[in-house]
Amino acid sequence: MVEQTVVYDSGNELAAYAAKQINYHMMGYFPITPSTQIAEHLDLLKSAGLHDVKLIPGDGEHGAAGICYGGTVAGGRVFNATSANGLLYALEQFPVQSGTRMPMVLNLACRTVSGPLSIKGDHSDIMYTLNTGWITLYAQTPQAVYDMNIIGLKVAEKALLPIIIGFDGFFTSHQKRRTYVITHDEDVQGFVGEYHPPYSALDVEHPATFGSYMNEPDLINNKYQLHLAMEESRNIIDAVFKEFGDLTGRYYTAVESYKMEDAEAALFILGSSYGTAKVAVDELREEGKKVGVFTINAIRPWPKEGIYDAVKNIKALMIADRQDSYGAGGGNMSLEVKATLQDYKMAIDTASRVYGLSGKDFYVSDAKVLLEEAYAMSQNKQVTKFDYFGQYPGKEGYNPHQYFKPLTLEEQSPGITTVTENEETGKITVKGGIPIQSTKMPKRIVGGHGACPGCGIFTNLNILLKGIEGYVVLLFQTGCGMVTSTCYPKTAFRTTYVHNLFQNGAPTLSGIVEMYHEKQRRGEIPQDEKITFIMVTGDGGLDIGMGPAIGAALRNHGMIIFEYDNAGYMNTGYQLSYQTPKGAKTSTSHVGPAQKGKETFTKDSPQIFAATNIPYIATVAETNPTDFMKKAAKAQYYANHHGMAFMKAVSVCPLNWGHQPREALKIMEAAVNSCYHPLYEVEEGITALSYNPEKNNKKVPISEFYKLMARTKHIATSPQYAEILEATQAEIDRRWERIKAKAEHPLL
Amino acid sequence: MAEYKIDLPKTNEYGFYEMRLESIGGLGANLSGKILGEVGALALGLNSSSFASYGSEKKGTPLKSFIRWCKEDQAIGVITPVEKPYILGIFHEALAGKVAVTAGVDEECAVVMNTDKSPDEIREMLKLYGGSVYCVDALKIAMEEKTRINMVILGTIAKASGFIPLKAVEAVVKDTIGRKYPNALEGNLRGIRRGYEEVTSKQFKNDDRYPYVPYKDVQYDWGYENAPIGGINPLFASMANNDMTASREGKVPVFHVEKCINCGLCDITCPEMALVFAEGEYKGKQQMVNTGVNYHYCKGCLRCVEICPTDALTEALERDVDVWSMHEPYRDFIQTKVEFEDMGSNSIVDAESGVTNNTITIEQEE
């Protein structure tokens, strides 16, 4: 057997470690809980110079899947990891990957599909992949995650099909375990062997067309080939399982069972719960109840022969699903297991339970309840055929009281700002925005939200909303702003608030805005009821959501897009976003001997929106609150009269930028005075500076900003990063000079 | 490594020796849990697992870390939270008595507490059914040794366990943290050793003064019969009954009305909407005036202290002042009695008695 080492790692870390050992050509990824640690850990290992996997952060999971597809078409070994809605966002690419027969490995840390948004684990995501033509293995433990990552690549390349390695989000992805890894990378590489793709887009001496346009009569043949490959993969999986067992001593089988030989009743359960159910089986066996449990380590191809072998002696079977196929009378595992029983014409009494949704814990006592029900069936007792397990009705007579009255129009219109449009010149003038007067504006967001101490998001939202008079409807894309303020059963919002997922806020708010206009036009809501619509995004929401936001801008809906730029995906633990400064440390752009932080400059989102020719763009900062409030008021005026307004504030993140919460103002002053975040507006295409630090001799080099934060201090202070500092200064200067030049030019 | 192969002195019905750490995000309990997991797996020759209560990545939120050990050849099929710990580590006094941190604690349990108080005082503070209390002033030691309190508490846990060799903890810390942060290693090791040595402890038998707090999963008042459909929440601004005290790290702002020029900048910078302004009189003029700080919401970030141009807001150690005598409630609450709940709402473990301990009732004037 091969030499192995004991480590203490989580499923995610082990997936990354296997990828490091395999030394894939490429990982295209986009961070999503709970799979994110895989890219993070692989990046950490890369910064230490331990592998050369090229990590490419996609603009979203769909983009990441495209990057991966490109990598495989180009004949390389490719790796990815995702979860939940990330999987669904990428799903369109899955049949492309399998239908064109491009092997790769995807780790799926399984998580609840939204909405409502949940970050915890269940199997609602992976079931969407059943029809995509990917081989799918399921790992019960962190050890299995490691092993199946090595097994999976070999299977995929032999079958010429992509493969999913699924495992339970958090339970398996995050719990750390004592685990064995193969000591030497060469032994892993020796096991998986070399990959020689039959076709490659880089083989220019043998030109080929990848992705034919194919209708009838041909497509059915292509799919039949896929079906044959999937069938053949059964043998490949068995053979590679055996080979891996001989190498490591750990033998896997497509179906795994415990005390099924003489069992009268059994439980079928997938994933980490299988281990729990085994403990419950032991307890019931002590009571003399002949029960057993079985699971599958391969979902596709479906191991029906193994299932038959497991169940052939039992009388009753409880099937536990950690998801539901609503209206089908059971989750997907129930449907498939029952189909297998039918195939073999078996007269086994079955029942199904949907359990553990959104990571609801599955205790040994819960497993016992399910096994007891199976046992009761085997004793010819009736049980409910299909039900949920673990739901509760709520407290009888619960009559929650409101803490506040809804804010009236008058209360929300204290006249902090006044906006006038000169009818002749069209020039819009805003007055007011005095901080003490702004305290009259009631809070549309109340205290008690769960953001970190000193968080810039809520400071910025507060200033923004001080500048918005009247009724407000807010829409938040996913991010720290929303997860800290709307955790059920509570909400911090005193005004109407809507959430939609990371990439789709702008289209959703477009729909709300246009419905408002249409209902007003039809007289269904009062004609004179003015509502201001604001989309709030940050935490990288304008990476994955940039395309849809630009679409909304090009349609010029009457709404405000407000970006709090905190320069990373903070709600998932600070992965790089395109807003992260070049050279900055993040959990996917580590700084180490072999890597110097993030590779590219920060994204210039106001200029991207300026190119859409929407009527109003403004940058704002908490350092200049009057300017901020007046711009909010102007944005409101534009949104209500002319079309879209875009506002961007840089927003401190003490936790991940690495500074004391109380230093927020000092840091933001440096951000503004270094022109990292210049304050200006673009009104009907005409740029005007709001603040010029050069005028009062306030301008400072970028290093004065960077040195204040752990994320960038190395760039400002260590000679090793002089090149990055110099390049950054040059880029900041270039952007600043262009803004100034535009401000000076009457047409720009 | 496995140089200190040991047999577990006691295990539960499933064969596990289990520990639970109660903390606040940012204090390093997650790392302590990971190190204890590694001590089991890599130094003591045990099978081992550890994990934290999961949520979004935030600082200042109550969190739990769980460690589960068993014999090397036993599989770890139980992956649920630790319900009945043999060791309970409490990283912050603010957690005591509010969140139900003592669920599952009985006479078998050793409670390790970061405090400058005595075991008798802590027993009262925690309303402890019974068990051994090990007090360590981890904050003081950490400051003196330039380490973090999680390292000190690791030392105390080793002591309280009665069987974890201090050398095993030191070896793992050397091997993991030491490699990553070599400069901090000496301080960390001194912190661990002092945590092991500078402990005051006392055994408490159950004397029927306080009830046993059983472990219980969270259930809210809304369920499938009475919750509005679609997860839609019509209880706007309902977070206003959250109390964020546990998020503060020792310091609070104090408002001095006589120095205030009512510029409103504190209300601009405060992310917590914790400054309460109202119509009033300043220099003979009717205008908005600052009436003070709402300490339910204040997380002690001190942004307001930094921005205040006249020292009308200054910082103080929370233990030196009585924040509730200075507290300024929101003025537009329509309830006269508001039950405030400790924030974090206990993402994984809860206990029934915790719910009553969990509330601070304030009387408000209409």
Automatic annotation (TrEMBL), chain A:
Signal as a keyword of this entry, yes or no, is: no
InterPro entries on file: PFOR_II, Pyruvate:ferred/Flavod_OxRd, Pyrv_Fd/Flavodoxin_OxRdtase_N, THDP-binding, TPP_enzyme_TPP-bd, Transketo_C/PFOR_II
Question: Which residue numbers delimit the Pyruvate flavodoxin/ferredoxin oxidoreductase pyrimidine binding domain?
Answer: 18-241
Q: Tell me the ranges covered by the Pyruvate:ferredoxin oxidoreductase core domain, including all copies.
A: 263-366
One GO biological-process annotation of the entry reads: response to oxidative stress
Which Pfam family, any one, appears in the UniProt record? PFOR_II
Q: Which parts of the sequence belong to the Thiamine pyrophosphate enzyme TPP-binding domain?
A: 488-647
Quote one Gene Ontology molecular function term: thiamine pyrophosphate binding
Which keywords fit this entry according to its UniProt record?
Answer: 4Fe-4S, Electron transport, Iron, Iron-sulfur, Metal-binding, Oxidoreductase, Pyruvate, Transport
PANTHER family noted in UniProt: PYRUVATE-FLAVODOXIN OXIDOREDUCTASE-RELATED (PTHR32154)
Q: Which family does it belong to?
A: Belongs to the pyruvate:ferredoxin/flavodoxin oxidoreductase family.
Protein name per its UniProtKB record: Pyruvate synthase
Automatic annotation (TrEMBL), chain B:
**Any keyword Protein biosynthesis?**
no
Which residues are in the 4Fe-4S ferredoxin-type domain?
Answer: 251-280, 289-318
- Which superkingdom heads the taxonomic lineage of this protein's source? Bacteria
Q: Name one GO molecular function term.
A: metal ion binding
Q: Which PROSITE patterns match?
A: 4FE4S_FER_1 (PS00198), 4FE4S_FER_2 (PS51379)
Question: Sorted alphabetically, which InterPro entries does this protein's record hold?
Answer: 4Fe4S_Fe-S-bd, 4Fe4S_Fe_S_CS, Oxidoreductase_gamma_subunit, PorC_KorC, Pyrv/ketoisovalerate_OxRed_cat, Pyrv_flavodox_OxRed_cen
UniProt entry keywords in alphabetical sequence? Iron, Iron-sulfur, Metal-binding, Oxidoreductase
Q: Does the keyword Transferase apply?
A: no
PANTHER family linked: PYRUVATE SYNTHASE SUBUNIT PORC (PTHR43366:SF1)
Q: What is this protein called?
A: 2-oxoacid:acceptor oxidoreductase family protein
Source species, please? Zhenhengia yiwuensis
